[in-house]
Amino acid sequence: MTAAAPDLTLLVPCFNEAGYVERFAAAASAWAARHPQVALEVLFVDDGSTDDTAPRLEQAARRLPGGRVLRLATNVGKGGALKAGVAEARGATVLFLDADLAVDLSHVERALALRADGADVVVGCRNVPGAEVQRRQGWPRRWLGRGYRRMARLWLGLRVADVTCGFKAFEREVARDLFARSHAPRWGFDAEILFLAQRAGCAIREMPVRWYDGEVSAVRLRRDVWGALRELAVVRWRHRAGRAAAPAAATPQPSRVPAGTLRE
After folding, report:
1. Is the pLDDT of residue 109 over 80?
2. Pairwise CA distance, residues 28 & 31, whole Å
3. Where residue 263 falls among pLDDT bands split at 50, 70, 90?
4. Do 120 and 43 meet the contact criterion of CB atoms below 8 Å apart?
5. Residue 48 needs a FRET pair 20 to 30 A away by CA distance; which of 37, 69, 154, 236 works?
6. pLDDT-derived band of residue 188, with 50, 70 and 90 as boundaries?
7. Is 111 exposed, middle or buried (0-12, 13-18, 19+ CB in 10 A)?
8. Does the global pTM surpass 0.70?
9. Pair 4, 66: CB distance under 8 Å
10. Dihedral through CA 94, CA 87, CA 5, CA 15, nearest 10?
11. How deeply is 38 buried, as exposed, middle or buried, from its count of CB atoms within 10 A (0-12, 13-18, 19+)?
12. Quick one: which H or E segment has residue 12?
């Protein structure tokens, strides 16, 4: 007999984040204990980590409800990692968030409530009424992030206040459709997914979040800011009005390693 699908998949992309795994696992375990009515799946995607993230994820997954680890052979970028994870997620709601808990699990209930109220896509926002930034990024990152969000809204006509916050929830089939049609593998994926959702007429709801800047970031300003802008320009070109849709990029496949790669 096939097991019933979980209510919620927490989808967590990880690249060299060994230092955050235990804290995230403890938080997820505590959340599950407080919400026994929610059938939970925790799906980690190891995006080709070169430290000991992978074995730590395997250990954590064994202790978590529905814990699984999807391991990618090489680093494909956050967008690519989420694309692979969404294709494997089983939950009726797929919610992705960062391993460093910049937006913590206390926000999950609100996201589920918005989903139950009819939202296809729930977008965490750091710059709407009710949001709180507990620890700010340094001014170069704030300035560049603000500029990127403005350009994303201008170039793509997005009506979302915070494009890049790493906390978003989707109805599962909506997520699968959007990510299957996405191309941006790295920092442009947020804008592309939101653009596709908006163009498809999805019900998009914003929710204020409490956000805390982590001590370590995978972002390297010189490389990744220009890369993100380049991806944004490509998104605009690819999806401009009247242009036939190009084939979506292939979903990154798990590496072929022994048992534990994708734990069922």
Report:
1. yes
2. 5
3. very low
4. no
5. 236
6. confident
7. buried
8. yes
9. no
10. -60
11. middle
12. strand 8-14
- Domain extents in the chain: 8-238
Report the pLDDT value the prediction gives residue 232, as an integer from 0 to 100: 75
Q: Residue type at 78?
A: K
| CB atoms closer than 10 angstroms to residue 155 | 16
Question: Which 8-state DSSP code applies to residue 236?
Answer: H
Sign of CA dihedral 15, 18, 19, 25: positive
Of how many residues is the chain composed? 264
What is the per-residue pLDDT across 15-66, written as a single tens digit (0 to 9) for each?
A: 999 999 999 999 999 999 999 999 999 999 999 999 999 999 999 999 999 9
Q: What is the pLDDT of residues 51-61, one digit of tens each?
A: 999 999 999 99
Q: Is the pLDDT of residue 249 over 90?
A: no
Is domain 8-238 annotated with CATH 3.90.550.10?
yes
SS3 state of residue 41: strand
What is the model's pLDDT at position 3? Answer: 67
Cβ-contact 122, 207 below 8 angstroms: yes
Dump the DSSP string for 43-59: EEEEES-SSSHHHHHHH
